[in-house]
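Audit log entry. Action: structure prediction of a protein-small molecule complex. Ligand: PPS. The ligand was supplied as SMILES and no pocket hint was given, so placement is left entirely to the predictor. Protonation state taken as written. Sequence taken verbatim from the request; no trimming, no tag removal. Recorded inputs:
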Amino acid sequence: MFSEHLGNVLKPNGQVSRTSPDILGHVLRSAGFVAAFFSSVSHSVFPLLCRGLMPRTLDGQITMEKTPSYFVTREAPRRISSMSRDTKLIVVVRNPVTRAISDYTQTLSKKPDLPAFEELAFKNRSLGQVDASWNAIRIGIYALHLETWLQYFPLAQMHFVSGERLITDPAGELGRVQDFLGLKRIVTDKHFYFNKTKGFPCLKKPESSGSPRCLGKSKGRTHVQIDRDVIEQLRDFYRPLNVRFYETVGQDFRWD
Ligand SMILES: Nc1ncnc2c1ncn2[C@@H]1O[C@H](COP(=O)(O)OS(=O)(=O)O)[C@@H](OP(=O)(O)O)[C@H]1O
């Protein structure tokens, strides 16, 4: 998502989106370099080799990498801190119930024979036992993942973006991201417009072209309809975990 709004980030498929040295500097652009640098096996086997693949950051530049799975990869905090303890970390978080449904919707689009959401989400539905080992559920236990990161990085080096506000107020959220990175607020309201067809904010004029640009079809899909009772059970499951997360980060995301 940041790659679309801010440019200059290594994309999950290993490609580089755009380059805009004034805003964010350069990216990991080594040939054959794959994303998920800090969660890949090769990192543990060849840490120096992998580090050597990273480009030099010149004065006035910031090197960024974007891999959503880092936040939930146990080894990632240690690996990243052993490379640089000054790394700044940005995490986009959204209501974990919506996140789980979004996750399931995405997987279903690739595997149409997937069991029903309800079958995967519960160990025993009538007893209200949620299956926290199912990835779509586990990822949303933000407080748990954060604990591992806090063993390696102080909270001051982390910034949490509200996935909800990123849609309702993208400029506001990106303003805070730019502040956190110590950048001038270059991306502002004037860069966005609300696209009624897409139902999401889009960029008025990306640097790579002169025409407006929205995120791709896989972002902002219509979610699978889930039974109201199931949603309630999941909300109950996440409520105390969300509170723990709010308390740790000192920010209320209002997911209830
Ligand atoms: N401007 C704009 N346009 C489209 N979509 C937007 C935008 N801002 C935030 N979102 C939300 O981003 C969600 C998809 O992001 P992902 O987390 O799946 O991205 S990533 O693949 O992990 O990088 C996607 O989730 P779904 O709605 O579940 O598809 C969107 O809700």
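Audit: result stored. Strands lie at 89-93, 122-124, 129-130, 158-162, 192-195, 200-203. The chain has two domains: 1-65, 88-249.
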